[in-house]
């Protein structure tokens, strides 16, 4: 049996190799970077199982050169790069990993909330010539306990974020595309529509899944609903945001700023309409990245592959 790992995130695979070797004694491993086409031609026909990062393009052109392939396990939640229909037609099982970093992303959102509300970006370049004390603050910030966080998307991550915000005394509103009002009410969260979330939130945090229906769901119209002085946080998918509209809203002062851990075209470059807008802070898609989340991700990805290779095909994806 041959397992192929396609990845550029890590240099060590002890967790995966240990689990897979225990399940399949004698298994052999191959590893490739994202430019894997030469390797596909060289040994793709020998591969039985695939562990791949979520951005690796896996379609029928790839599958046609891998006649032994039975299973694909993704290192993460997103699966947009996989042609699921082509995989199904060829009898290839596909699974992703969900909820492995809910705690980590929720912590990032709370960190970002404090970072924005307490206006820390203003003081990152503070030096001996800068004002000291209260004179350094253009306008006094507010306590979190007096503010409202609106969450768009009440899945694992949205809910963990809501509970952390509640613990800090914030009022929390939440929108979800399917009805989760009962869960929200049990959590002390107020169910709202998408428009109500943007109208009433001092901060709005996006946690919706990417799909054709949610592409640019946050556009100029939705951004125009936000309070003056409010902030937007996105740790979900860059495609949710119309980036030109966001840049315009910030430049016009419609909203105070944004913290984005994802952008529509990654990596972030000077070609982006968001580039150079000082009130928009972009981090390099790292909100999920902690030692604990990576261990859990690797473990669950390997366990998913074992299950698929042993014939457990309950659903194409673990969603």
Automatic annotation (TrEMBL):
One of its GO terms (molecular function) is transcription corepressor activity. Pfam families: 2-Hacid_dh, 2-Hacid_dh_C. Residues 113-287 form the D-isomer specific 2-hydroxyacid dehydrogenase NAD-binding domain. Keywords: NAD, Oxidoreductase. The keyword Protein transport does not apply. Coiled coil: none annotated. Residues 42-313 form the D-isomer specific 2-hydroxyacid dehydrogenase catalytic domain. Belongs to the D-isomer specific 2-hydroxyacid dehydrogenase family. This is Glyoxylate reductase. It comes from Acidaminococcus intestini (strain RyC-MR95). The lineage of its organism: Bacteria, Bacillati, Bacillota, Negativicutes, Acidaminococcales.
């Amino acid at each position: 049996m041959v397992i192929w790992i396609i990845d550029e995130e890590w240099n060590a695979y002890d967790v995966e190799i240990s689990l897979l070797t225990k399940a399949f004694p004698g298994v052999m491993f191959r590893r490739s970077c994202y430019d894997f086409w030469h390797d596909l031609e060289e040994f793709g026909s020998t591969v039985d199982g695939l562990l791949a990062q979520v951005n690796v393009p896996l379609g029928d052109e790839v599958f046609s050169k891998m006649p032994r392939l039975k299973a694909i396990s993704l290192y993460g939640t997103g699966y947009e790069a996989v042609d699921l229909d082509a995989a199904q037609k060829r009898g290839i099982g596909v699974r992703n990993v969900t909820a492995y970093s809910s705690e980590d992303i929720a912590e990032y959102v709370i960190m970002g909330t404090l970072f924005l509300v307490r206006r820390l970006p203003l003081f990152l370049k503070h030096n001996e010539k800068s004002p000291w004390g209260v004179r350094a603050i253009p306008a006094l910030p507010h306590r979190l306990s007096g503010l409202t966080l609106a969450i768009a998307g009440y899945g694992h991550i949205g809910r963990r974020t809501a509970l952390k915000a509640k613990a800090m005394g914030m009022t929390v509103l939440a929108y979800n595309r399917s009805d989760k009002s009962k869960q929200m009410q049990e959590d002390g969260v107020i169910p709202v529509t998408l428009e109500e979330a943007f109208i009433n939130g001092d901060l709005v945090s996006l946690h919706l899944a990417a799909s054709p229906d949610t592409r640019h769901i946050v556009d100029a119209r939705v951004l125009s609903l936000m309070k003056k002085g409010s902030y937007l946080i996105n740790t979900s998918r860059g495609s949710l945001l119309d980036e030109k509209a966001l840049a315009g809203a910030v430049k016009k002062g419609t909203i105070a700023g944004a913290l984005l851990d994802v952008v529509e075209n990654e990596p972030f470059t000077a070609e982006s309409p968001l580039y150079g807008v000082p009130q928009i802070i972009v981090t390099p898609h790292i909100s999920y990245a902690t030692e604990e989340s990576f261990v859990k991700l690797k473990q669950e990805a390997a366990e998913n592959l074992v299950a698929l290779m042993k014939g457990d095909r309950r659903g194409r994806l673990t969603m």
